[in-house]
UniProtKB/TrEMBL annotation:
Binding residues annotated for carbamoyl phosphate, in chain numbering: 57-60, 84, 108, 135-138, 271-272, 299
Listed name of the protein: Ornithine carbamoyltransferase
EC number: 2.1.3.3
Top EC group: transferase
Family classification: Belongs to the aspartate/ornithine carbamoyltransferase superfamily. OTCase family.
InterPro entries reported in the protein's UniProt record: Asp/Orn_carbamoyltranf_P-bd, Asp/Orn_carbamoylTrfase, Asp/Orn_carbamoylTrfase_sf, Asp_carbamoyltransf_Asp/Orn-bd, Orn/put_carbamltrans, OTCase_ArgI
Biological process annotations from GO: citrulline biosynthetic process; L-arginine biosynthetic process via ornithine
Sequence ranges assigned to domain Aspartate/ornithine carbamoyltransferase Asp/Orn-binding in this UniProt record: 154-309
Lineage, uppermost ranks: Archaea, Thermoproteota, Thermoprotei, Thermoproteales, Thermoproteaceae
Endpoints of the signal sequence: none
Domain annotation Aspartate/ornithine carbamoyltransferase carbamoyl-P binding: ranges: 7-148
Subcellular location: Cytoplasm
Binding residues annotated for L-ornithine, in chain numbering: 167, 231, 235-236
Length: 312
């Protein structure tokens, strides 16, 4: 674990399979200790975590604030408008200043490039709490959830249905490539994932056994999978494209019909917030196959593992 100390987490592309496994194991350990009554693990006592969020958040904010507290840290939460960033101080200067004061930064941004600038000029680790490119902390919780419900870390067959070019699709591909998953992105061609993530998965797959399929066909993508995953059709920041996205993605709604094609083994997953009646129907998200609340719960334990391991 020592090799992770001081590292930032912007994308799983920057992590080896072994490092992902270390964080997954630590997450499981954090959760077990929590259930045994050991919530407080004060390994970062006296330290401070700055959380800057350009967009709203329920799960990520609440889990990182709680995780930090349970590790002994104080958190400072702010939107950029309340900082001098809102009046034009640069991201670079902000990073130089705050990283001389706090011990870690968790940031949710519109443009992934903001995270890169922040990290380049920060002396302390930066954790991506969601960008337009990827959402790494969410999928660590998803991998933990799949481990719990399927009893295995490797070889998970997962179909992501919907907007294949969004942050969730990219992060599922990246973590799945490291954990040797059979990943299917089921999406209209217009929204296929970015080349970088596809190429990384093809490359790593040779070592980890991961396979990536990108298809427009629901039948081909979801038949026989362990999990069907979906996400909103219009991500935060994409509101201008709402009309077109609603139209093109409508055939990819996860409803009981699609779950029937997937088959008996398939659990339903969603990072949340869900737009009921759009990407998923009530009967699916509220069914006994749905593990969405367990995913949300696991945000806490994985956030704790990430902070415990990365903060110096
Ligand atoms: N899943 C997720 O990241 O949710 P929030 O936007 O509420 O943080
Ligand atoms: N793709 C969604 C994920 C929300 C957690 C968005 O970016 O809005």
């Amino acid at each position: 674990l020592n090799q992770l100390r001081g590292r930032s987490l912007l994308s799983w592309l920057d992590y080896t399979p072994q490092e992902v496994l270390m964080l997954l194991n630590l997450s499981k350990n954090m959760k077990e200790r929590y259930y045994l009554g050991e919530r407080y693990i004060g390994v970062h006592q006296g330290k401070t975590l700055l959380m800057v969020f350009e967009k709203p958040s329920t799960r990520t904010r609440i889990s990182f604030e709680t995780a930090a507290w349970q590790l002994g840290m104080k958190t400072i939460y702010s939107n950029p408008q309340e900082l001098q960033l809102g009046r034009g101080e640069t991201v670079e200067d902000t990073a130089r200043v705050v990283s001389r004061i706090v011990d870690g930064i968790v940031a949710r941004v519109f443009n992934h490039s903001t995270l890169i600038k922040l990290t380049q000029h920060s002396q302390v680790p930066v954790v991506n709490a969601l960008s337009d490119e990827c959402h790494p902390t969410q999928v660590l919780a998803d991998a933990l959830t799949l481990w719990e419900v399927k009893g295995k870390v490797n070889g998970i067959k997962l179909a992501f249905v919907g907007d294949g070019d969004n942050n969730m699709a990219h992060s599922l591909i990246a973590i799945g490539a490291r954990l040797g998953w059979d990943i299917r992105i089921v999406s209209p061609k217009r929204y296929w994932p970015s080349r970088r993530y596809i190429e990384d998965a093809e490359d790593l797959g040779k070592r980890t056994g991961a396979v990536l399929t990108v298809t427009e066909t629901i039948e081909e993508g979801v038949k026989g999978v362990d999990a069907v995953y979906t996400d909103v059709w219009v991500s935060m920041g994409m509101e201008k494209e709402a009309e077109e996205r609603m139209k093109l993605l409508k055939p990819y709604q996860v409803n009981q019909g699609l779950m029937n094609i997937a088959g008996e083994n398939a659990v339903f997953m969603h990072c949340l917030p869900a737009h009921r009646g759009l990407e998923v129907t009530d009967d699916v998200i509220d069914s006994s196959k749905s593990v969405v609340w367990q995913q949300a719960e696991n945000r806490l334990h994985t956030a704790k593992a990430i902070l415990a391991a990365l903060i110096r």
